[in-house]
Design goal:
This protein is α+β, with helices and mostly antiparallel strands. The protein has 34 helices and 31 strands. The relative contact order is 0.10.
Length: 985
């Protein structure tokens, strides 16, 4: 690391070092600085990690719900002073080896983070991001594309109806159809009547059209200034050089101002309130058990770091696992199916809040849920919390704080998200990363008396700033909203002058011309193929056998935590048992085992582990599309000192699970049903793609059954089983456990630091010895037939669509796999993004190829179109076949492939990846061969694979669309052939 020698009082590049703190929990040093001429704040987390991350953030409190902060976040990335091209952000996605690039709008702040392991790339992206944030073009045309615009449904025909278009407009139509997002927005509106959180920073669809271009520009001028900026960096970069670049590119051009961006404390309510809100639900769905109730309290200010920690612990004590008293009371009440989204403590806002509630309830239960919560809190305050329970929560928090995560997002981004709320509101960010000092104070408070009981009374029971919110479904609301929008548009159109109509036509034509134009991107920095490492770094693994079970040992910097994966093949199970495996996995760690009921098991898991989960796993064979491995994996983690206790629990979970508590099964299945249904609106493209793929290969068919729309439907049915049917399910699950958890063909993987491996070997061996050996006969995975239907339309209550087309191609070891990987990047970046997002107004247009599954997919996300998007997919193939792309775009697509291949994982995630490769027989030599083939992909190879595998005459493909019923009917009216087979989930 470069920056260990800094101390408070030093200066560098006009910045005063204000504070330096060691963070032993995460092996890092926090350095905080202030740029003296402008007041800009800097935080650097110095840590031995070459995946460097940068972010610049601003306080951006909106004063209405037009989505100004959100639309500005999109628009600043559409061109800037030094980089005056239409879309430098998406252009740099193609010219970079980034490990993360994005921008995010929260309730009152906006951040622009990126990360890269390549120093040249990091500096390229730093230039782009700084210029975009501080010197954006903010053209009216970009505002109309990203935010909102009026357009005729037939863009060149002024007699056709007017419509609203815009990327953010359609994004927020989709977001506001997600009940989880809607509940959060409506709760903010009720709980914060006088501050910025009353407004929807993302934008309410009906208010977004009220935002003007000038208001957007004024918002940028007001808030995007160094005096209102928070600069964050992470990794082993040279801090002085880094800040010097920011000084040169940005800071020297500004003088200090006094930005009026601080968010005041909320005015406290003097009496509790109840609020009722509606959300649209498709008429085909029943209204029963579709409501949500949330009860919330405003709590402490964000500056009070000790109280925030105490409330975090209190939230876990109340709700942290099935044995927690408020969690149990809510689920046992029968008033709902699951905890409401957002249940728990939230400390991102200037004034923090706590919420608890139920979903899967009915409107008449509003009073009962509120009364239940209040009565339960009173009982808890009277009975108190055991010290053992408190220590269990602190133990779980210790693991969460120590664990180096980063499989879905960079670890640095996760750290940034932990600190940004407190830091940007002038609180103490240190406690979010190093909570051990506060824990010591907390234990001292506990020694003095009933600390949490008093906290509970003061912050919740006796706190009048309480809101009980009901969010209930309405069959007529969607049509009502559509009529209002249509009436608004018709009124606008009726009053248009000929000049105004001509202006809309002119603007539409100009936007399309700009979108179609070939741009000179030479002003943008780029990498070359020579910047790519042609070989994957070799990981270290040692393998041996314990009691006949193959064990792989991965020496990784896991920061004092041991990670164990136990892999049990499902060969030998019946096809019916295989169908039950997702349910089995969901329930296995949620029920009792041995002599423990589910409550005792939940408390024990919290006390000695960082979590135990069971999951299904599918791995395709690298050389054959229709061969695959299927297994159940048990994944567990614990602090090194608790590894023996963890394996003692695993012995009970695998050897003596108890599925006999039928009420517990019913409760968990109800929770799972609601959870899966909640996931559909935000992951509709994934669900649609899995449904299409199910007709193309046996592995994809099983994946759809295990984790697709078929599973959503199946769990919905299981949640409504009779007692007799539930008893039969219980017996089936017991039989699966007896047949599955055996030594034959089982494997294990352990990720842990060097010498700590010794702490695992003996308890692992003792655990394996408890597993039955099983019969010697060969076990065969039953055949899985592919699904029927190549043109599917799935009905879901959403105002936008998810359109997918999936092609069966070739597997990993095929000579064409490399070209297909590059083709997916090429089509997404050079064609689908422009046609589906920029022109069509969808939030996203994507293409992907999985070498593991051999499936190539085109997808749209939150799309106002269906038939037009399907036409775009066909046109995209034609565009490739005629060679409508440049040599530069091939290079950029190859860079994009390697950006994905070389994205870093967490220490445990990297071990899991290497374990999967070992099980597949996917050697390092094979992986490096593919890397070489990717670097060699040329124009002819791309044309060949597009023609052979995606062409209309040769493609083996399937289409699946997830949308509202009316949208699917309209699409079928427009399709000349290949109508969608409309299905209900």
């Amino acid at each position: 690391m470069h920056n260990r020698s800094f101390s408070a009082g030093q200066t560098l590049c006009n910045c005063l070092v204000e504070q330096v703190d060691q963070l032993p929990d995460i092996n890092a040093t926090m350095i905080r600085l202030r740029h003296e001429p402008t007041g800009a704040r800097f935080m650097h987390l110095d840590r031995e990690d070459n995946n460097h991350l940068f972010s610049v953030g601003f306080r951006t409190p909106p004063e209405d719900s037009t989505g100004v902060a959100h639309i500005l976040e999109h628009t600043v990335l559409c061109g800037s002073k030094r980089f005056p091209v239409r879309d430098p952000f998406f252009s740099m996605l193609k010219r970079s080896l980034n490990t993360f690039m994005n921008a995010m709008t929260a309730s009152d702040w906006t951040i622009y983070p990126f990360s890269s392991q390549n120093e040249k790339d990091f500096h390229n992206l730093l230039d782009i991001y700084l210029d975009a944030a501080f010197f954006p073009t903010l053209s009216e045309q970009d505002f109309s594309q990203e935010g909102h615009r009026l357009e005729f449904e037939t863009p060149d025909d002024s007699s056709s109806p007017l419509t609203y278009k815009g990327v953010v407009y359609n994004e927020m139509k989709g977001a506001m159809s997600d009940t989880s997002s809607l509940l959060s927005r409506r709760l903010g509106r009720a709980l914060y009547p006088t501050t910025t959180y009353h407004h929807n920073s993302g934008g309410e669809p009906e208010e977004i059209p009220n935002l003007t271009w000038q208001q957007l520009r004024d918002f940028h001028a007001r808030y995007y200034h160094p005096s209102n900026a928070w600069f964050f960096s992470y990794g082993d970069l040279d801090l002085e050089t880094h800040i010097g670049l920011i000084e040169d590119r940005v800071l020297q051009h500004f003088t200090r101002i006094e930005p009026d961006s601080a968010v005041p404390s909320e005015v406290r309510l003097t009496a509790p309130r109840q609020e009722r809100e509606r959300y649209p639900l498709d008429e085909s769905e029943p209204l029963q058990k579709k409501s949500l109730v949330q009860v919330a309290w405003l709590t402490c200010e964000i500056e009070d770091s000790f109280e925030r920690l105490a409330l975090t612990v209190l939230s876990s004590l109340l709700l942290g696992n099935p044995a927690a008293p408020l969690y149990k009371a809510l689920l046992d009440s029968g008033l709902g199916d699951n905890l409401a989204p957002g249940t728990g403590y939230h400390d991102d806002n200037r004034t923090t809040y706590f919420a608890a509630g139920l979903q899967g309830t009915d409107p008449e239960h509003l009073d009962a849920v509120e009364t239940l919560i209040l009565g339960t809190l009173e009982r808890i305050a009277d009975e108190g919390f055991s010290r053992a329970r408190i220590e269990g929560v602190l133990h779980r928090m210790e693991i969460a704080n120590r664990e180096v995560t980063g499989d879905s997002y960079p670890y640095a981004l996760i750290l940034l998200m932990r600190v940004i709320g407190a830091w940007i509101h002038d609180g103490d960010p240190l406690s979010a990363l190093q909570f051990s000092d506060h824990v010591e104070r907390l234990r001292q408070e506990l020694d003095r008396g009933p600390f949490f009981e008093k906290l509970l009374r003061r912050t919740l029971i006796d706190n009048p700033h309480r809101v009980a919110l009901l969010l209930q479904p309405d069959h007529t609301l969607g049509a009502e909203q559509d009529r209002q929008t249509r009436a608004q548009l018709d009124a606008i159109q009726k009053n248009l002058s000929d000049t105004e109509s001509a202006d809309i036509l002119r603007r539409s034509a100009a936007l399309q011309q700009a979108q179609d134009a070939e741009e000179d991107l030479s002003c943008l920095p780029t990498l070359e193929l020579s910047d790519i490492d042609p070989r994957e770094p070799e990981g270290s693994v040692e393998s041996d056998s314990i009691e006949g079970v193959e064990v792989h040992w991965f020496d990784r910097p896991t920061n004092g935590i041991g990670f164990v994966t136990l892999n049990f093949p499902v060969d030998g199970l019946s096809i019916d048992q295989i169908a039950d495996l997702p349910t089995f996995c969901s329930l296995l760690t949620q029920v009792g085992a041995g002599k423990m009921d589910y409550l005792e098991m939940a408390e024990r898991l919290e006390a000695v582990t960082g979590g135990v989960l069971a999951r299904t796993s599918l791995l395709e064979t690298p050389a054959e599309l229709d061969r695959f491995q299927a297994s159940v994996q048990i994944k567990a983690k614990a602090l090194v000192r608790n590894i023996p206790q963890m394996f003692a629990l695993l012995k009970e979970i695998c050897g003596a699970p108890d599925f006999g508590d039928l009420q517990r099964l019913r409760t968990v299945l109800g929770q799972l049903k609601v959870s899966l249904e909640n996931s559909v609106p935000s992951s509709g493209h994934t669900y649609a793609a899995r449904a299409a793929a199910a007709s193309l290969s046996p592995a994809a068919r099983l994946r759809e059954h295990w984790s697709g729309l078929e599973q959503v439907s199946r769990v919905s049915q299981l949640a409504d089983l009779s007692d007799e049917e539930l008893r039969a399910l219980s017996q089936r699950l017991q039989a699966i456990a007896a047949a599955l958890f055996r030594r034959d063909s089982a494997q294990a993987a352990v990720a842990i630091e060097g010498d700590n491996a010794a702490a695992v070997r003996s308890p692992l061996a003792a655990f394996i010895a408890t597993l039955p050996k099983g019969a010697d006969d060969e076990k065969i995975l039953p055949q899985v037939p592919v699904a029927q239907g190549r043109q599917q339309g799935w009905v879901w209550s959403v105002p936008v669509s998810f359109v997918t087309k999936v092609f069966r191609t070739v597997p990993y070891r095929h000579p064409h796999a490399a070209a297909l990987l590059v083709l997916a990047k090429l089509m997404r970046a050079e064609y689908l993004h422009r046609e589906i997002r920029e022109k069509g107004g969808a939030y996203g247009g994507l293409a992907s190829y999985s070498a593991e599954s051999g499936l190539f997919s085109m997808l749209s996300y939150r799309d106002p179109q269906i038939t037009q998007t399907l036409q775009v997919y066909d046109a995209a193939v034609d565009w490739v076949v005629v060679g409508g792309f440049s040599e530069e775009s091939i290079k950029e697509a190859i860079l994009g492939v390697f950006s994905d291949l070389d994205r870093p994982l967490s220490p445990s995630g990297q071990a899991s990846h290497e374990f999967a490769c070992l099980r597949q027989g996917l050697t390092l030599t094979m992986r490096n061969q593919l890397r070489g083939e990717i670097l060699a992909v040329d124009r002819q190879a791309l044309i060949e694979v597009a023609t052979r595998y995606l062409g209309a005459d040769t493609a083996d493909s399937a289409v699946s669309v997830l949308a509202g019923e009316q949208a699917l009917q309209n699409a079928n009216d427009e399709l000349n052939s290949g109508e969608l087979d409309v299905r209900r989930i």
